[in-house]
Amino acid sequence: MKHWFRDGAFRAILRNAAYLGSGSVASALLGLVALSCAGKGMSAELFGVLVVIQAYAKAVSDFIKFQTWQFVVQFGTPALERNNIQRFKDVTSFSFGLDIASGAVAILGGIALLPFLSHALGLDDKDFWLAVLYCTLIPSMTSSTPTGILRAFDRFDLIAVQQAIKPFLQAVGSLLSYAFDWGFPGFVISWYAANLLGGTLFWWFATAELKRRNIHHALKPSLFTAARRIEGAWDFVWTTNFAHTIWAARNSCSTVLVGVVLGPAAAGLFKIAMTFFDATGTPAKLMEKSFYPEIMRLDPRSRKPWLLGLRAALLAGGIGIGVAVVMLLVGKPLISVVFGHKYLEAYDLIQIMLGAIIVSMVGFPQESLLFMAGKQRAFLIAQTLASASYIFILVAFSHAFGVQGAAFAYFGGQCLDVLSSLIPTLNAYRKRDSLVFNVPGESNS
C-alpha cells in the first residue's frame, strides 16, 4: 500500500474523503443525539410517526429528483479542466433548471399522494397535516446542483461544513424539545427548520464560490437552450434519474415499506438500525464522493482509473470489516445509552445488517467507473434487476419474519446490488480501448 499513496489521484481521493469525513463524523454523532432525544422524549408510536413522515418526504424527493450533481461532475469537471467556462455555465444552467422543475413536480406529487397513503402509513388527521408541512421541504431535498458545483471546484471542505450544520441544528432543536418537554410538535418543528436551513446553506456556498471565481450567470435556469448545446445531456440525466429512482425504492422507501407492512413502531426500530448502518457506511460514501470527480480527470482507456477503483474498494472493504467488529462490540450498550432499553431490539437488526456494510463498501467504485465509461444504461439495468428483487424480498420477509426479516432482506439487497453492477463493470474494463476521453458531446479539436 505504500506504493498506492505515491499516486497523486489516490491521495486526492483520500484527502477529499478526509474533508468530508470531518463533517460526516460530526453529522453522525449529532444525528444520534437528535434521534436519542426524540426516542426518549416521545412514545415509540409517536417516534415512529415522526420517522415515517420524514422518510415519506425524503422518499418522494428521491423518486423525483434528477442527479444533477452527477451531471455537473460528468460534464462540468472536464470543461473546467479545459478552461471552457461557457460550457460549464451551460451545464450549471441546465442543471439548475432541472432542479426547479423536478422540485415543483415533487412537492405537488407528494402532497397529492398523501390522502391515499396516509392510512397505510399509520397517520391520523393531525399527523396528515404535519406530513403536508414536511412536503414543503421536498424542493430543497431535490436540488443537488450546488453539490455538483462544489465537487467540480474541489471544495469538499465547504461540503463538510454543510454536512455538519443541518444535524447540528437538528440536535440543538431536539435537545431543547426534550429538555423543555415540548413533545411531538417541538421535534417536528425543530427538525423541519434544521432541514430547511441546511438545504439553503448549500446554495449560499455554491453561489459564493462561483462569484469568487468570477463565473457570472451560471445559475440562470435554462432547460432546452442549454441542453441543445450539450450533446447527450438529456440521455444522461434521464438515465441517472431512473437509476436513482430505483435506488430510492430500495433505500429511502425501505423505512416507509416497513411502516406500511408492520406499523410505525417497527419502522422506528428499523430507522434506528438504518441510522447505525448509514453511520458505519460513511467511509465508503465519502470516498465515492471524492472518487467520482477525480476519475473524471483521467483517461478511461488507461488502466489507471480502474486500478484506482480496485485500490479504493480494497481499502474501503478493510475499513468495513473493522467497523463491523467495533459495532459488534459496542452496538448494544450504545443503543441502550442513546435510545433506552425499549429500543434494544434494534441491535438484533444491526447484527444482521453488518455484512451489508462490508459488501456496500467493497462495491462503491462501480457506479462511478460505469459513468466514467459512459455505461450509465448498463448501471440502470443492473439497478433495476437488483432493486426489484430487493423490494419483493423486503415485503415477503417482513410479512413472514417481522422486522428481523426486513433486516435480512436489506442485507440480501446490498449483495444483489453489488453483484449485478460487477458484470457490466468488468465488461467495460475489458473493452476500455474503445472508450472516448473527451468532454462528453464535445470534439477534441
TrEMBL record:
Q: Where are the transmembrane segments?
A: 12-35, 96-116, 128-152, 186-206, 306-329, 349-366, 378-401
The family database entries (InterPro entries) matched by this protein are listed as: Poly_Biosynth_Transport (IPR050833)
The UniProt entry lists the main location of this chain as membrane
Q: What is this protein called?
A: Lipopolysaccharide biosynthesis protein
Please tell me whether the keyword Lipid biosynthesis is annotated for this protein. no
Instruction: Specify the domain of life of the species encoding this protein.
Output: Bacteria
**Where does this protein reside within or beyond the cell?**
Cell membrane
Record's keyword terms, sorted: Cell membrane, Membrane, Transmembrane, Transmembrane helix
Q: Which organism is it from?
A: Candidatus Pantoea multigeneris
| Bilayer disposition of the protein | Multi-pass membrane protein
